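pasting for the record
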Amino acid sequence: MSTRREGGRTGTRRDGGQASAGSAERAVLRLARPYLRRLVGAGLLAAATEAAGLALMATATWLLMSAAGRPPLDRLTVAIVAVRALAIGRGVLRYTERLAGHDAVLRMITDVRARVFATLAARRTTAGQRTGDALSRLVSDVEAVQDLLLRVLVPGAAAALVGLLAVGGAALVSLPAAGVLAAGLLVAGVALPASATALTRRAADEVAPLRGALATDAVDLTHGAADLAAFGATGQALRAATDRADRLARLERRLAATGFAVDAAGVLVAGLTAGGVVLVALRAGVGGVLVGVLAVGTLAAVEIALALVGAARQRTQLRAGLGRVAELLAAPDGPAGVDATTPVAVAGAGTGDAGIDAADTRAGRAVEGTTHHVRFDEIVVRYRAGAAPALDGLDLDLPAGRRVAVVGPSGAGKSTLAAVLTGAVRPDAGRVTLDGHDLSAYPADELPRAVGGLLAEAYVFHASVRENLLLGRPDAGEDALAAATAAAGLLDWVRDQPDGWDTVVGEEGGQLSGGQRQRLALARALLAAPPVLVLDEPTEGLDPAAADAVLASALAATPTGHSVLLISHRLSGLDGLDEIVVLDAGRVIQRGGHAELVAAPGWYRDQWLLQEAAERGYLALTP
């Protein structure tokens, strides 16, 4: 239910912008360029399918009307074969078109979903992205991209092309009839889609945000049921969710009614156009059989053009979802906040470094002997314009092998510091360098191999212990898993479980206690072993004795030469670190070794004495 925030961070875009429908579509379609040939092929196959259907109707009509006059069979043979070929070909073309279209779109959707997931992951770390809304964006909104291509662009282009072919075919029989057909197709393919768009735009724009809000309500009402009941807010939350559900139902009923009216108008246009074509053709002296062919062909052509009405209505309903996807694709706080500058390869993370196994780097495994030097120079971070900075002029030096603890009261900027170091938050002023290069110059897929660890609200997946751990290092064997879990103080618990490493931990680690969940996340971070290890409250949820033991073993398990940035509210166990930095309101108010800070008046000594007294009292009361 609650989301950890610090320094006034929010989930809104810094530019506060809202992508228009056209710009949203352009942003999404830019991702389709690598698959343009496949999409064009799918469009041509769709046009061929509709053309085959139109030709089938016209040929079958000619065959039936001609057969009524009992001509010699040889005059009908070609038409009979054509009808069979067109019927079979239409089915084959439709299957091939669907296969080609879905192949291209699913390839593109994989890329879109990966980009959206990366941005949502960054926002969840930095801006408190709600779980339900994130799920809606990752599933429903990304599916809007698929529908834009498969249900709007491909059928729309196919209908327009077949309409031109139909008018050309009618012109070979009668130019006046072709003119009437063209007018009917313009009404069915242009006027009606424009009307459908105008009638449904406002309601459709509200549907996607409402679905996202309902997804959030569902998460709150299920996962937050205990909290809501404790505060007596269950009824209020249910009423709010019910009101949103009712509004969504009303909007969807309105859209359905509008769609029914437009479809009815389409049927009327088809009938009027066919009648007009017949009347004009008869006045022009066209023979009876060809008049029938023109009439049936007109009905089929207008029906194909009416697909543009469905495409326009679908496009209107996709506007909000596409805008939300485009916002994520173009977000300034996008995946890892990576700048558009020339990428810099992380030492030991690429395939070009001599003596480094590419398989190790692809697995995200820290290469033995790789070290990095991190510097913070006058870093300033603000989450809102005009608000107090979360970090204000921070200087910090973290050379290879150095171990630094950052402490301070809640809201002091500790987690913001970790977010800046991992690239999740970009500073408003100052510079963070990794081996002398600006941190934003490193590719988003390489930076975590150099800098990573246990961050605030580390996620535990609904999977086994083994699968959760292997996210840190996919090629790790059981000995490595055992070493990491032992360092995190979780190995004995794993061995006590009937399923051992295959024990399923539940959604968000729901089958574990808070301390066990934290130890599992810590073990995953230790298994990954990045050269710059960030540990944000690694002992949260543990009792004092266990916290001290886990912290000591985790630090001992860190490879020699790897640097550590430890963020902690507990001051016990920090005496072995090289430096302790005390933050308050984003500024450094004290720094030095443990003994030095305990001896000097200030926040650190006051907190040390308070924690010592509290833990002595806790131990005295513990059996």
